[in-house]
Structure formats: C-alpha cells, structure tokens
Amino acid sequence: MAELDKLNPAIRRFGEELYSALRNRKTILPIAERDPTLTIEDAYEISLEFLARRCADGEKVVGKKIGVTSRAVQDMLGVHQPDFGFLTDWMAVEGDISIDDKALIAPRAEAEIAFILKRGLKGPGVSASDVLSATEAIAPCFEIVDSRIHDWRIGIIDTVADNASCGVFILGEARADPHNFDLPSLKVSVHKNGEPLSEGFGAAVQGSPAEAVAWLANTLGGFGVSLDAGDIILSGSLVPLAPAVKGDVFEMQLHGIGNCVARFV
After folding, report:
1. What pTM does this model have?
2. What pLDDT is recorded for position 173?
3. 3 state SS for the chain
C-alpha cells in the first residue's frame, strides 16, 4: 500500500476523508468526480486505507461482503458490476439498530443470505463447490447499506472506496447446512412495517449465492486477501434495497430456514 500511496497521494487522502465522514456522520462529494483518473484498483486501495483507520480505533474484521450483485440493485444504483467490502465487529448488530449510535446517514435495507465459514478460502481458482465445502452454515441476514458519498451519487469507484457502501448488518438466529438446499431456488420474502415489500430468489446473485462467494474469494485473492475460518460472508441482496428511517421494522423470511428482523430506532 505504501508504494501505491507514493504513486497516488489521493489514495491516502480519500481514505482519510471517508474515515472522517463515518466518525462525524457526514457525507463527502463523489470521489470519481473529483479525481477522474482513479481506477477500480485505486478505489480498493482507498477502501483498505479507510479500513486501516477503523482497525486502529479497535474495530476487528469479522467477515466480508459482496455488493451490487443482483440486477435489481445494479439498476437501482446505476452500478453494473459487483464489488466487495469488509465487515467489522462494530458493524454487527444483535438487537435494534440505532441509527444515531451507528452514525447511519441514509440507510437502506437489503435481505441476504449469510455464509459462516468453517475453513478459509483464497483465490484464484475457488469454485462454488469449494465454498459449500468450506461453509459451516448459512443464515438469513439484513445488511443495512449506507453511503458516505453525498446523496448516494455513486458510481463503481465511489462505492468500492466507501467499503462497498456498507453500514451495519444483523443475522437471524436460524442456521442451516447449505448442502440441504438448492441455493438458487431459496426464496426470501420481505415485509416492511407489516406490509409485503418484495420477494427474491438465490439465483438473483450471480446465479447462486455460492457462486457469488466464490467470485469474492477469487477477487480478494488478487489483493492478497483471504476469506478466513469463522468469517461471516454476506453474499448480496436478493431484492431491491429499501430506504429505512427511525420506527421502521423490516422482517425477512428465508423460506425453509428462518427469519431476520431489523428494527430501526
């Protein structure tokens, strides 16, 4: 990273800006608009700078996430390729989601399938079969995405740099062996404030959530990063993301497995 910083001082500067935006609950202007020369590789290096500052504050990495995998989310955001980010223990929520305590700016809820790994994976060459063999369990999950980029004016450079627009996440209690299910056919139903909101299937994320996790392992491998034993991996939203404000209650049902509830306070 140090060599890249010497070649492109913007990497360190934007990493510092995003960290400050998170801690001060503010937004910054789109990065790509201010420096059109930045590449996706630069954006990932910015995200690592951002993460390093969070870890220096005491946060610990507990997993990784895939973003912008489904066509519904790609069309909504105008970003047409997947990305990845990191999950920390500070981002894990076990009860109600405090918008203020977690410094959320413009949160949106995504219903996902989480993978909990029993063995590590490192690309290249990781297959969906390898993912299933390395997985201890799958679980219903809400990822609450958020953006430190003003007014969600993001392209691929901006969302990548901003830790794949991740805010916090919450896991349901249910755990299931992925070998017992046809993952592309797994159905999720989402309700918001007691009313039906959306439905989706596992096939929405690159044909199968296991394929999405394999993509993540192989992409991260190119940056020298692995998926590790014990990691929580969020495989991407199965439905369009939905804005959330204080008082909203989202419930997802991962059919045949269990549910997850996200209450915003």
Report:
1. 0.92
2. 97
3. CHHHHHHCCHHHHHHHHHHHHHHHCCCECCHHHHCCCCCHHHHHHHHHHHHHHHHHCCCCEEEEEEECCCHHHHHHHCCCCCEEEEEEHHHECCCCECCCCCCCCCCEEEEEEEEEECCCECCCCCCHHHHHHHEEEEEEEEEEECCCEHHHCCCHHHHHHCHHHEEEEEECCCCECHHHCCHHHCEEEEEECCEEEEEEEHHHCCCCHHHHHHHHHHHHHCCCCCECCCCEEEEEECCCCEECCCCCEEEEEECCCEEEEEEEC
